[in-house]
Design goal:
285 residues; single chain; mainly alpha
Amino acid sequence: MTIFTDVLQIPSLYDALYISTSRIAFLLVLPLMAIAILHENTLQIEGRGNYTGFFVRLGLIMGLLVLYKDFFTAVTYGTDLLAKSIMPDNEFSSVIQNMFTQVKKNADFGIFNFFKGALINTITYITYLFTYVAYTVLIWLRFMLLSLLYIAGPILIVFGIYQKTSGPLHSWMKSLFQVSFWIVTLSLLVRIVSYMNLLAIYNLDHVNTISIVTANVLFVILFVFTPAITSTLITEGSIGTIGSTMIGIATSASYVLISRINHSKITDNLKNRSDLEKQSKKDVS
């Protein structure tokens, strides 16, 4: 697995679309300036005008439009480099594989029957596949959303000239940082989980079924909730709310998987008992 889709490709891939949207943006500059100036004139009559703030805002918007590509690349590629410094590509891939393969190396199914041990390995493999799918969806969705933000950015930015229409600019800026930081949050989570997984779960002398299943389910959920966690960390919100949701989903999923294991055990025991009864009847006859 590779941890990144190259965001440096976005400007070259969508250059034609960017040129179109940037031209539209510059066409909107004069009308929005006129509206903003009229609004400031009205406020000035009421003694609430702020021409200094208007011209500062105008300068920042025009500077952002002129340096748009550099700003976009600095944010997106900068977060990629930060994520790589936290978790390099090769180490990331190794950790993900170890999360789900260590159970086969270190687990001692002494108290489990053969079929129960096989079922746990199957569940481990399934959760690994789900994690891989969630990871792949995450990086491709990040690339696609960043591409969308890159194309639409100039038009959304120019609305910041007039304070009352600056909502699109704020939304674009917040979305750009949130989506860019998905990969940073993911790298941090994997770095943390790598220690939790290898030191606290699979290296125990006696592996507990509930610990194995719950840990694997948690790893999948961490990948799925990476965007929500990032949004909470960057903007206002409580990560405790997301934690409560994750606990509920992890508990429900773990209960279902553990029930399957227990069901398999009961089925095997009934089958063994039936075989013993048949053998006993043959011996009697």
